[in-house]
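task queued by scheduler; priority normal; single chain, no ligands, no partner chains; default sampling; output format set to structure tokens
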Amino acid sequence: MRSISLLLVLFYCSIVNASKPITLNPQLITQYNITVAADGSGTYKTVQEAINAVPDFRKVTTTIFIKKGVYKEKLNLSTSKHFIKIIGECVEKTILTYDDWAQKKNIFGEEKGTSGSSSFYIYGNSFTAENITFQNTAGPVGQAVALFVAGDKAKFINCRMLGFQDTLYTYGYASRQYYYNCYIEGTVDFIFGSSTAVFEECEIFCKKSGYITASSSPDTSKYGYVFINSKITGNAPKNSYHLGRPWRPYSKSVFINCELGEMIKPVGWNNWGKESNEKTAFYAEYKSTGPGANAKSRVTWSHQLDEITVKEYTLEKIFNGWNPIEGINKTSYK
């Protein structure tokens, strides 16, 4: 594969859902290993072909540039595919999508289940996505995953995850995941799973009514979900959403310096019908703002961090030394 010096020139595409999507100017890109274009102008026409072409267990980054288009594929990035970076030409117009859902039958007449419903599976480590929309178009039919992430050290920059119930499945039991300047939408438990994940400067868009998070952190994990400087928005009715509920007893979700919309219930959190979860789950906030911020009305078993305890929530501590912001020019997304 060719390797030429990298120069990525970013400019604004258009404003969608109060985020700032970025377009890449393909004429000014001077390094990419593979190009995907549905019209045949690239190395491959499909994203899966491009992923398959990457040598197994590669120890240097392979960059796949995906031109604008809607790519309807059920994608799989296997555990042998390491250091893959996919870059979309424009976050609004580079769309990876499929339409499976949990109750849909497979060729054997069996239901696919939640895990089987995903549009894109990421098992390989050190995966990065920029300017990509991940989508499940099955609609409000129950669990329908847009993105399933199991690999360690996964990064998503200026991406969109679109769906209804169970949009983003942070599946990896011990995986570390970082989401920066992303837009994530859904209804019930639309960010869920056992991984340690940070959502920094993201927009979390609530549709209809439901629960934002359903963490299933193991008891061995100190951190679960951490939202930093993010906004909870949406078109859901007032007082129709909980910040989270415990899919497993040791669920963990923390919101730090986040702006909460009016759809957030005053109680904030839900115990999933099990009083015993109140003793094991860890739910906390620090300096929440907006109409959904209501520290005095939160459930008594939740927490409000102070100036000392919030210092435990640095990226270095959360990710046990992994630095996910290396190579990210945050000023490009302002």
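post-processing summary
- The first helix runs from residue 47 to 53.
- The CA atoms of residues 51 and 108 lie 27 Å apart.
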